[in-house]
Amino acid sequence: MIRNFNSMKNTMVFLLTVFLLFSCSETKKQEKALIDEDKLGFIDADVESEETNLKSKAEFGMDIPGQSEVIERAFENAPPMIPHTTINFFPITRTNNICFSCHLPERVEETKAVPIPPTHFTDLRPDMGEKGGIYYTTFEGEMAIAETKNFNNAYFNCSQCHVPLSNVTVNIENLFTPEFRDVLSRDKSQLKDKLKEGISE
C-alpha cells in the first residue's frame, strides 16, 4: 500500500514537472511572438517626431477659422469634423480651451461658428439606486439626465471626438453609406432630442 502511494506520488511529481516545463516553453514562444508596441502601426517610424521623414504625410486644411465650409457629418449625430486649421490649438485642457472662444453658444452670433450642442451642457449618467446609504448603478437602461447652465467638463477634450479633415490616400475601399432621417441632420446635431430613443420608459 505504501509502495503504491509512493509510486503514485512520484508519477504526480513527474507529470507536474513535465507540465511546468511545457508551460514555460510555451510562454517563451508566446513572448517571442509578441509584437513590440512601436511596430504596431502601418509604418516603422516615430510619428510623434518632427524629424521623421514619412513617405506620405496627411495634408490638413489650412483655412483659418471663419473661412472654412462646414463638413457634412459622416453619419447622423456623428461628431462634426474640424474644417479649419488647428495649428497652436493643442493641448486642449480643462482650463485652457481655445475652441470656447468661437463655439460657446453666446459667441456664435458674433463668430458665425457652429455652436457647442446642448448635450455638452447636460449631465448624462446612469440612473443610480440607493440602499443603506450606498449608491449603485441600476443597469436598467435608465439615464439620469440633468441640464446644466455651465459646460460639462466631461467633454473638455474636444479633440477626443472632433478631428481636422485631412487629404490622405488610404488603400481601403469605403463601402459605408450614411442615411440621414432628417435633412437637417447632415450638418446639425439632434442628439439631445434623441437621447432616449430606443429606450423603453
From TrEMBL:
GO terms for biological process: anaerobic respiration. Signal peptide: none annotated. Its main location: periplasm. Gene3D superfamilies: Flavocytochrome C3, Chain A. It is found in: Periplasm. GO terms for molecular function: metal ion binding; oxidoreductase activity. InterPro entries: Multihaem_cyt_sf, NapB. Keywords: Electron transport, Heme, Iron, Metal-binding, Oxidoreductase, Periplasm, Signal, Transport. It holds the Pfam family NapB. Belongs to the NapB family. This is Periplasmic nitrate reductase, electron transfer subunit.
